[in-house]
Every structure is written in C-alpha cells, then in structure tokens.
Structure prediction request, 467 residues.
Amino acid sequence: MKHSRRVFLSMSAAITLQPKFALADTALRTRYDVGSPGGQKMLALYVEAVKRMRALPAADPRSWTFQWYVHAVPNNPGKATALAQVFGADNSVARTLATEIWSSCEPHFSARSELFLPWHRYFLLAFEDVIRGVLANDSFTLPYWDYTRADGRALPAAFRKGAGAHWAPLFQANRKKSLMIDINAGDPIDKGTSASPYTLRAMERTQYSGPLGFCATLDQTLHGSVHTGVGDPTNMGAVPTAAGDAVFWLHHCNIDRIWAGWNKSGGKNPAFSQPFVFAGSSGARLFYNGDGVGDTAKLGYGYDDLPVLPAATQVGMGVSANEPETIAASTGAISLGDTPTLVPMRAEPGQPSTSVSAQDEDVRILIVIEGLTTDVEPGTLFEIFIDLPQAAGPDERRAHYVGTFSFFGAMAGHAHGAGPSFDVTATIRALAQSRTLRQDNVITIEPVGTPVQTARPAVAKIEIVRR
Prediction:
C-alpha cells in the first residue's frame, strides 16, 4: 500500500528532513459515527484528550490553545499579540512553528477555495496524531457528527448542558441560544427553518473546482450553515473562535467524510501539489505533501459508513459541464436586515426565461450569490426563495425555497466572501408546472433569526444561470 509522506522536524534542533510513512503495513484506522458503539468508545478517549490538552501551556504545540490557533487566532488579541503573550521573548522552535502555522486555515486566509477540503483533511490527521501522543494510544480516531440525518441534527448529548462533570471539557456555554432555539438544550440545529439546510445537496455537483463546484458548494452551504447554526459569533459561529469548541472537530470530520463519499460516488479530484505544515504528536513540525490527499486509504484511514448518491445522480460524475450563461441578474449591492429583502432580477437580453430553460432536460439552473460582506458575523442563517408569494404559508415557502447560506468567513480580513450557489432546476420546473413562477423573477432573502445589529451583511450580486 502506498502512503502519503509525512515529514517531521525536531522541536529541539533543526535536522535533515526524513520521510515518514503513515501506518505502513498495518490495517486502516476507522472513524466512527459518534452515536455508534465505536464512536462512543472514541468519544470517551476524546474527552480525556481534550482535558489533558487544555491543561498544557499554550506554548506547547500539543496544547488545546496551540491547535486552535492553527486554524485561526481570535481577533482579540490577534496573531502578533498572541505570539508575544504566549512566548514572550522566547525565540524557541515552538515559537517559530507557531509563527509559521497559526492562522493558516484555507481558504479563510487566502483566495484558494479549492484547498478548503485538503487543508482541513490534513489538519484533522495532525490533530488525531497529537491526541494519540497525548493519550499514548495509537488506536484513537476522531468520531464524526452526522447532522445530515434527520434524526441526527441535535448536538451530541455529551456536548450539551447537563451532560455531567465527566463531559465538562466538551461543553461550551456560548452556543446558539435565542427565543427560538437553544442548541445546548438539545434543540435540532434546523429548528425554525423553512427547510433543513443540513443535507447532502452539495454532493450533486459534478465538478470539484470552481465557484459552482463541489468543494466551494460544500464549504459555503452545509459547512458554513453548521458553524452558524451551532455557535454564536464568539464561538463556532466565527472563524477566529470556531476551533476553540470541541465539536468543531466532529463537524469537520463529517465534512471530510462527505468528501470521501463524493469520491466514492464517482467525483473526481484535481491534482493537488500544495504542501501543508502542522504540529504533530510530539510537538514536532509535521509536513504533508499535497499529492495523495484525495485518497483516505493512502492516508491510513477510512469511515464506518459513507454517504452515497442515487445511481441516477452518479451518472456523468467528473464529466466537463457547459459554461454557465446568465439568464437574469440583480442590479446594485443588496443590504440585508432583520426583515425579508426582495431583489428584482433583470433578464439578460437574448437569454430564455427560467421557465423556458427548465423545459430543457439537459440544462441545469442555478442561483448564484456573489460577494458576501459583513462588519461582524450576523449570527444567523439566511434563507433564499424565488417568487415567494406574500403571506406564504409553510407549504408555499417550501415550494419556493432555494437554499440557505451564512456569512461564516465573510468578515473583513478573510478572503472567503465569494458566495454560495444553489441548483434550483427541480424547483423551477415544479413552479413552472404549477404556474407560480413569474416571468420577471424576484429573489427573497430572509434571516432565520435576528442578525446582530452591527453586522451590516450585504450581497454584491445575485445571478440566475443556466448550464
């Protein structure tokens, strides 16, 4: 079996880099659903590891704080100040490593959206490596939280209020709580939504790369919705603080699992060449080659179960799609508030209407949201509808529902406000058949809760495209 190469650099002295192979000549490790017997066994190990890591000084690369800061350092104090606070005048190898890898999350600190999945896959592997070292237990694997199941959308019980003193390291008080929902009390994360955004719709994308591809869609819809649905803007709901919550790792384990499922269903990855650096089990500098990241078996692990697509959806996976053509677009920036925002769509000259396009079975119709900006995290999800009637009831809202998005990662300082896209082909066809689709389409964007007053979320443009 061929394995992805990992290279370690000693924390005590600079040495010649030597290759080290993961799990050579041994069986693959398995990651389990957190609710399964195997997942519960790993969760018991996880809580002990979190407890030990929180007890380590922040300057130790194996500590909870150090690992959290690899993803992103909180805005207050910020990376430069945090380095000074943690290390003082110490110019140790650990400080050099922290300077290199703190706030290195892709794509939040770059415009390389296609690296969202590879960077986080290696981050999870490095984190598991740290936990195995902290526990002196080589069998540990991260469990995953599968919130895409209708019966799995409540936060796992061990992370909630009242779970007991043993599970206290997994509890965070600053999770989502309002008059409508209380995540720590066990409310499902889709409570109060018109239609659950916690689905596998991203797996329907046939290409990995690009703004309409699988990676960007998974990142900007399901991934961001879970962050915003679970945490407030001081916790999972904001990039700088997200990795401080222990459930972050179970969330990203599931995102990684969905990627593996997309590949199993026929999705093709591009060639990856970008190397990544993390901190490993002994606190050493851990270097991962980019090649091989798309194959979990080469990395030494697998999942107890993978999500799959219907056979009809698998046909054509990896085949090049037509370039998108704009049918209609908004004009001017769109400011969002605590009430529904109605956006008239202007038809593009020479392009067929959405209803005409829907009659072509070889055409897909997408709604693309571009240029998300916000001063601070709004702290709520936003739902999109097309041609939603006034005073629509629950059934009408579901019929006109397009999708849900968040502003996770869209704050100033993060290169991640591109915006999501939604395949609305089936919705458009159904509305055209029921004669409830307008010729001059109107998009409605509505907050699920009340946005933070100082957020000022905005969208640069909305397009309806056909491909």
Q: What stands out?
A: The radius of gyration is 22 Å. The domain at 5-313 is CATH 1.10.1280.10 (di-copper center containing domain from catechol oxidase). The CA atoms of residues 366 and 423 lie 4 Å apart. DSSP finds twelve helices and 16 strands in the chain.
